[in-house]
Design a protein that fits this description.
- GO terms for molecular function: hydrolase activity; nucleotide binding.
- There is one protein chain.
- The chain is α/β, with parallel strands linked by helices and 371 residues long.
- The chain has two domains: 202 residues, P-loop containing nucleotide triphosphate hydrolases (Rossmann fold, 3-Layer(aba) Sandwich), CATH 3.40.50.300; 94 residues, Hypothetical Protein Yjia, Chain: A,domain 2, CATH 3.30.1220.
- It has ten helices and 15 strands.
- The strands form two sheets. An eight-stranded mixed β-sheet has the order 3-4-2-5-1-6-7-8, with helices on both faces. The chain has a seven-stranded antiparallel β-sheet with strand order 9-10-11-15-12-13-14.
Length: 371
């Protein structure tokens, strides 16, 4: 039986998850979707679509979709659904898990990698995070859960953008990009988004290419340290020891290739010192497979709980193919990807998204993994 794709939908209360879900469920796309609700809060699907006050754990809906509330843990619910599908008792093609507003999507995502029975039936497709434009800045200031949800995302939708000014929206996007440069950000009005932006995003597919937000890489407050060979780009806007405006150029910053470059960025004022941040590393020289495996293994062991998502496309010594790795918390996987093209620039590109990332350790350690 083909693996059943799963989408995790997360976001703070009021961000519009339910509106988006209703659209996905009721749109005439001909797909049969099972929705797992992680809690029945005040705003849940059942008010409009489902018959409320039912004891039934799984409800078949008129359009062939299935709704399910979790009374036990996620694992047993997923097993139950897969068993019913195998026996022909339920017909659905994919699953959307709606998490609670405060949930950390990490453990939900890990279920699909750690549990062999679950991995035999399901394929985790992506994590989608919704953000309420009106309250996002305050929620991100006050709640780490909200910041973590952004760090985990493969796709970010901003709802209620009509309630804020263009400059407020731009500032919110700027802030989000620094937390997570790998997830595209789009505005969603009343859940009006194309299904192609919600389903089959292949966020956890090892061979999907690593796209980073181009504005993030160009943005003012990145320091570029151009070595003879590669360059590291890491965003200095959130270093804790300087939150004033910087006006320093790049003169006089000669450092050996691979060494951390600690000069501040230029003239960009940051108001937010978020603990969820991203670190991007690029290098054109080949990496040594054994050294890199040891280093990444050690990093994941020590910093795993604080690493939300990480992914890389690597130029490794000894193979003409790309090596792709990714992970969630302590779980990391890697695979051989396609061949490097004859005219393609061979370079390693990695992004780490996490809480209080140890940038200097990452930079130094990666520098020591060169072949």
């Amino acid at each position: 039986m083909a693996l059943i794709p799963v989408t995790i939908l997360t976001g703070f209360l009021g961000s519009g998850k339910t509106t988006l879900l209703k659209r996905v469920l009721t749109e005439a796309h001909g797909q049969k979707i099972a929705v797992i609700e992680n809690e029945f809060g005040e705003e849940n699907i059942d008010t409009d679509i489902l018959v409320s006050d039912t004891e039934e754990q799984i409800i078949q809906m008129s359009n062939g979709c299935v709704c399910c509330t979790i009374r036990e843990d996620l694992r047993s619910t997923l097993q139950l659904l897969a068993a019913k599908k195998r026996k022909g008792l339920l017909d659905f093609e994919r699953i959307v898990i709606e998490t609670t507003g405060l949930a950390d999507p990490g453990p939900v995502a890990q279920t699909f990698f750690m549990d062999e029975e679950i991995a035999e039936s399901y394929l985790l497709d992506s994590i989608i995070t919704l953000v309420d434009a009106k309250h996002a800045q305050q929620q991100l200031d006050e709640r780490q859960e909200a910041r973590r949800q952004l760090g985990f995302a493969d796709q970010i939708f901003i709802s209620k953008s009509d309630l804020v000014s263009e400059s407020e929206l731009a500032e919110l996007k700027h802030r989000i990009r620094h937390m997570n440069p790998r997830a595209p950000i789009q505005t969603a009005h009343f859940g009006q988004v194309a299904l192609s932006q919600v389903l089959d995003l292949r966020g956890f597919n090892l061979n999907a290419k690593l796209d980073l937000d181009p504005d993030f890489l160009k943005s003012d407050d990145h320091s570029h340290c151009d070595h003879d060979h590669g360059h590291c780009e890491h965003e200095h806007g959130h270093d804790h020891d300087h939150d004033h405006d910087h006006d320093h150029g790049h003169e006089g910053h000669d450092h050996a290739p691979g060494e951390p470059c600690n000069h501040p960025g230029h003239g960009h004022h940051h108001r937010h010192d978020d603990d969820v941040q991203s670190f991007v590393y690029r290098e054109t020289r080949a990496l040594d497979p054994a050294k890199l495996e040891d280093f990444l293994g050690a990093i994941v062991q020590v910093y795993g709980p604080k690493l939300l998502r990480y992914k890389g496309v690597l130029h490794m010594k000894g193979t003409g193919r790309k090596v792709i790795f990714q992970g969630v918390h302590q779980l990391m996987g890697s695979d051989l990807g396609p061949e490097w093209g004859p005219d393609e620039l061979r370079q390693s590109k990695m992004v780490f998204i996490g809480i209080d990332l140890p940038r200097d350790i990452l930079l130094q350690g990666l520098g020591q993994c060169l072949a």
